[in-house]
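For the sake of transparency, this paper describes our internal protein records without simplification. Such a record has a labelled line for the sequence and another for the backbone structure tokens. Nothing more is needed to write down the fold, since each code stands for a local backbone conformation. For reference, a complete record is included directly beneath this paragraph.
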Amino acid sequence: MNHRFFVFSLILFLFQMSFSRENLLGSYRIVEQLSQPIVNDGNETTKTSHSFLITDEKKKKSVLKLIDLESLNNLTDFIIKDILWYKQLNHSNLMTLTNCFLLDTKLCLIKPFATFGSCSDLLAQNPFGIRESIIALIIWQILQALRYLHDRHIMHRAVASKNIYVCENGRVLLDNFSHCISMISPFDGKLRRQLHEFTDELKDQILYLAPEVIFQNATGYNFKSDVYSLGTVACELANGSHMYLNLPFENLTLLYMKMEGSKPILLDETRLTPEMLALQDENDRTYVEELRQRRHSKEFHSFVESCVATQLEFRSSIDELQIHPFMKSPKKIYADPQVLADEMTKYFNSNRNDEKMSSNMSIEHSLLDVSSSTSNSLSISWEF
């Protein structure tokens, strides 16, 4: 166990963060405990962590992720990689790590608070999907984040709705760098055209992974795999849920479907099939009636299809997507991200800015024994 904390202490030192109890514990106060999503993604830290909404002395809101190191069976590169990538990356559309420190046997990570939560939170409130215009604004900013990463020969490999956050000022942040990988070979320093790595940790991203990543064949995969994931997110935001969400993983149904060429599609009145129209379940009928009244633009359909093409030669690159007609309007108003903030406020009728503090506990007295916490849960879930 001592070796574990030595490793993390070294990482924090390299990250140039102060982890002195005297400097940090008195600086933050807990506002609320944030709800955790119930997922079975194989990520051990999801089961051994807690998230809190906190404020500093200037009343600035942040999110604190508390990971119990003693409860982890395997302190592999998963957490360490995530922390080290924050040190290297700096872009307005990438999540930042404000501070990190050790509190006894717990690792504390502090990040900016995104008022509107993640895209998964948005879908939880809008099960039929969100407006195309809002999706365009979100996707445009994620394109900027991916362009930044790809220009530095880095693949993200975890573009998913739960890893995309929308802030109060309209800024969209891409998070979770634990799956990032460099295209530069660690052995000879040469730039690789393709990658072949597939680790167990990637299984929690299987819904969003491109077919070539899952295949693990000799061809490998490249930056366009991130593009596929982005197209999957766009479909999910428009449709209200992931089209593969309810497939059983145990019998490899999802893998077989992707191998056979199945790909995400936008659902609207033009995509209604006789089978869908014949659905008898009340919830399904309600959704079909919603689709009858929905018609996405041909630009949106084209954008998604260019993202999720199963053959790499037909899949667009990040540069090509940035000049796609679907991105024309978002590009014009990107200089003023407040447009997205205003749209989000109107569309979701958000009142989170007026949340009252239900607790004024210091971190030192409340986080050492998280199990005794009685604070209420917000509707926002944080999983990073």
Observations:
- The domain at 19-115+352-375 is CATH 3.30.200.20 (Phosphorylase Kinase; domain 1).
- The radius of gyration is 21 Å.
